[in-house]
Amino acid sequence: MKTIRIANGQGFWGDSLDAPVQLVERGPIDYLTLDYLAEITMSIMQKQKSRDPNAGYARDFLYVVSRVLPKCLDRNIKIIANAGGVNPQACVAGLKEVVNKLGLSGKVKIGVVTGDDIVGNLDELFDSGVELNNMETGEPLSSIRNFVASANVYFGAAPMAEALAQGADIVVTGRCTDTGLALAPMIHEFGWAMDDWDKISAGTIAGHIIECGAQTTGGNCQADWQSIPDLWDIGYPIVEASPDGSFVVTKHEGTGGRVNVAGVKEQLMYEMGDPKNYITPDCIADFTSIQLEQDGENRVRVCGITGKPATEFYKVSISYSSGYKAGGGLIYSWPDAYQKAKAADAILRKRLDVLGLKFDEILTSFIGVNGTHEGLGGEPSPDLAEVMMRVAVRGNDKAAVERFAKEIAPLALNGPPTVTYFASGRPKAEEIIAYWPALIPKTAVQPQVEVITV
Description:
This protein has 12 helices and 19 strands. By secondary structure, it is an alpha+beta fold. It has 2 domains: 4-116 and 154-311, no CATH class; 321-434, Alpha-Beta Plaits (2-Layer Sandwich), CATH 3.30.70. The protein starts with a strand and ends with a strand. Strand 1 (4-8), helix 1 (19-25) and strand 2 form a beta-alpha-beta unit. The strands form 3 sheets. Strands 11-12-8-7-1-2-3-6-4-19 form a 10-stranded mixed beta sheet, with helices on both faces. Strands 5, 14, 15, 16, 17 and 18 form a 6-stranded antiparallel beta sheet that branches. The protein is globular, with a radius of gyration of 24 Å.
């Protein structure tokens, strides 16, 4: 039975630059997927594009392609990445330069999936009856319409599979589902029908397992983490997919990390929601149907997956301007580190009150005490070696946020003793780009696929 090997070399924008190279060079693969996008990433890219019309995509992608493209072409390894972010065309322009520098001009086909960016069509959509209400609160988009910065539809695997069918060596998309990056090659290679819900769900779950990169091969793993070998050389995940929908999760031999049932289960829990109804544009996958078994060292077999028909909607990721924020901190040392940190917070808050500065929220964390376990109660040990007081504010008055940023540093000399570190210098006021999830009928938007030779 024919199998294909799909490897994922990026779990987020900022992941290891060497991982994709490792996957190409240290063993056989057929597809290299690179997952760069998250909601926060889209917001960052939108900020970049607002400052530079040629920005707004994952520039790391160009570096990765420059290192692996010649071998990928030699070995017929296809590259699929959502590196396009909010500016896929600029990403493709960057790829053209890379291809030219490698001396490969005229030999590379790039598939571009666009149509996800609907920010310029919002008023037209409103007029046609598409409301784009907030999925979590029910609020109408009209309440923040004037502050919208970006709006991108989550497309699924079908347009990526279409680009592969047209012969693309590299497929670049904007906003798409993480799972679709791995599902698309299975649809293309195995000829799966888009309404074969069990198989589409299997491919979706395969994509979910590898979408976070090394998180499924031993990284960030709670289960017996002390025994996981050679994390410094961790292998990134590979799915060996079969036409019947079963697959094996593995990694290249000789790499660090570990692939076992416990680790795969941890990744399956990631952002799962309702286990019986994992909704994507392609299907509704049933995580309760998944069967896992160890299939040898660093191999986990996955089978038995069932699914249900896809919904009539796409999800939309909308970002909008929501005021300003700033945050900074000071570290206090023993003795009485926690008491000093609390006193510094009280002094700062009183100072802000005297200055008449108003904010929507002021949040203080005492890192070393409750920075990750706030609300558990109880007093910490009096012998804490150090505690960071970190204070952040947010509000619509940029001038007030900027003035707050100037009030932390003076505490080093006019507050409690033993300040040891002024974290990152004077903080800057930053625009807040907030997230607005919505649904849009699939009939209201259409992905576009173009394959060009560069």
